[in-house]
Write a structure and sequence with these properties.
single chain; alpha/beta; 5-stranded mixed beta sheet; transmembrane helix; Peptidase_MA-like_dom; membrane; Peptidase MA-like domain-containing protein; transmembrane
Length: 265
């Protein structure tokens, strides 16, 4: 009996340590992993054409030359505004890869899914599926892509990842991306609006991937909207910076917003 109690106590202590130091472990090891994966992605796409701007480097295939120019112009146009709002200026040019082949896109970013995403931020790189693969009106591809493409959304994910050293809950990065996308492009995520009220912050935080995508995204946007309305964007930047120090979301919310995490609903 004593042996069982001792084993149980040890297991409990180990679990407690894992929970306590998980965030610290992430910020300690993630930068190295990100650097390796970024190098691999760039190696796989080193035969692509390159279009360089002041802050971004676009890789593309010949068929997407016009899309590359649109992407670069859009990102450069909003770079200062976004970086000022989020109080973060990247130290290096940001690689953006445009894929005209869905299978190559998924393999490069190691993503297993049955549906092709329009864009994915992955390990320091912004990856975009060419609009020739998803815009239905072939005569209006450039206009549709410029106005609704994933370029700004994925750039926000890049900055959140950089500020937090990869230590963030999914609802926070998605909420920030949707918030900034609406502020800059006027695109509002309306899907899931009718059902989002039933989701609490702890469910959103712990079970994000189990919630229907439309609902989880809408709730993420509503949560970030509420936080910015109550505390201001400056405090949200402090929250992101504190996560980057290795604190968990509960601790960072308490330090940056002076409230308990469960009360930010």
């Amino acid at each position: 009996m004593k042996k069982l109690i001792a084993i149980t106590s040890i297991v409990f202590i180990i679990l407690l340590l894992i929970i306590t130091f998980k965030s610290f472990f992430i910020v300690s090891t993630y930068p190295s992993y990100k650097r390796i994966e970024k190098g691999r992605v760039l190696q796989r796409t080193n035969k692509y054409y390159t279009l360089n701007g002041t802050h971004f480097s676009i890789r593309y295939k010949e068929a997407d030359k016009n899309i590359a120019f649109i992407t670069l112009n859009k990102l450069e146009r909003h770079y200062e505004e976004i970086c000022n709002k989020l109080d973060y200026f990247p130290k290096e040019k940001i690689p953006v890869i445009i894929y005209n082949n869905g299978e190559e896109f998924l393999k490069t970013i190691r993503l297993k899914t049955n549906s092709l995403p329009l864009g994915v931020y992955y390990s320091g790189t912004i990856n975009i599926l060419s609009p020739y693969n998803w815009v239905e009106d072939k005569y209006d591809i450039e206009k549709v892509y410029e106005e609704t493409g994933p370029h700004i959304h994925e750039f926000i994910h890049f900055i959140v990842d950089e500020k937090t050293n990869g230590n963030y809950p999914m609802w926070l990065t998605e909420g920030m991306a949707l918030y900034m996308e609406r502020e800059i492009l006027g695109i509002d995520w309306e899907l899931g609006k009718e059902k989002s009220k039933s989701i609490g912050i702890e469910e959103l935080n712990n079970d994000f991937d189990k919630i229907e995508v439309d609902i989880s995204y809408r709730k993420s946007l509503e949560t970030v909207d509420s936080l910015i309305d109550k505390y201001g964007l400056d405090k949200i930047n402090l929250l992101l910076d504190d996560l980057g120090k290795g604190n968990n979301i509960n601790t960072s919310v308490k330090k940056a917003l002076k409230v308990n995490f469960k009360d930010i609903n």
